[in-house]
User: Fold this.
Amino acid sequence: MTPERLAEVLSRAAAKRILVIGDLMLDEFVWGKVGRISPEAPVPVVEVTRETSYPGGAANVARNLREFVERTSVIGLIGTDRGGRELRALLEEGGIETGALVEDAAFPTIVKTRIIARQQQVVRVDREELRAPTATQIAHVVEGIRHQLGDVDAVVFEDYGKSFLSPELIEKVAELARAAGKIVTADPNPRHPIAWKHVTAVKPNRSEAFLAASMPWSDPVEPASEDEALLGVGRSLLEKWDTQYLLITLGEQGMMLFEGDDAWHIPTKARQVFDVSGAGDTAIALFTLALCGEATAREAAEIANHASAVVVGKLGTATVTREELIASFHDDYSA
Assistant:
């Protein structure tokens, strides 16, 4: 794919509006340095130098999309606590529409705190309570989407297995979106089995794909295009989910795209890997974005692959900018 073709796709996608639905969380990072071991226990003492916070989970998908499109909306459950207020503020500061957020005073906002020392994660602290949406909340979300769907070009389901994406909610929203001719994509979670019927594309990673297909784990094979176990899983999931495209992310091996009877391997473009946090968010965001820009599925997979390669070269919950993505294609095309 040439840089010129990339520019054409991104130009078409820029005016689109994409709605992200899923598990929202606040990603906190405590940065510091280790100079000694604690006298209280054999653990490192991290001397804090700075702290940062970013929208995480489904909110990070929206954040990735906002780098490329004029309008991005996000729907998910937050509390009225400090985490919820900070997450809402971060989203609004980033130009992401929050009017459809579901706010519940009894729900503690999901917060993940990572302690980073010398560019290495020392520990992660999770504060979360898994809670499915109530019937009233589902009805509220569905009705809200029904009213705004005419102004939406694509819907992304981002499932972190935190229970907001209930089967009932997914079925109702997907039915509305598909009936309206919208692109519908999903990033699934193996701990939360969903019948992803009639969506445009589903994007699991390799381990998630094997679990979803109820197939025993098989170590990766080089080249990935000759990995018979992986190819079998892909064919199985295409039939099980009845989806148009299946994109399996393979870490250092890149991605594998399945469409009908065909499968294409897209090798990784990553040169350095510092942090894989949020790489899946970037992949589903850019794959959906590219489809909105009238890219073919193979072109969309290539764009998602380049974008993910940029993100894993950064520390923390990161996004890829338009300039970084274009530069990645120029570097690859001129190599």
In short: The two ends are 13 Å apart (CA to CA). The chain has one domain: 3-334. Residues 3-334 form a domain with the UDP-N-acetylmuramoyl-L-alanine:D-glutamate ligase fold (CATH 3.40.1190.20). The CA atoms of residues 213 and 236 lie 6 Å apart.
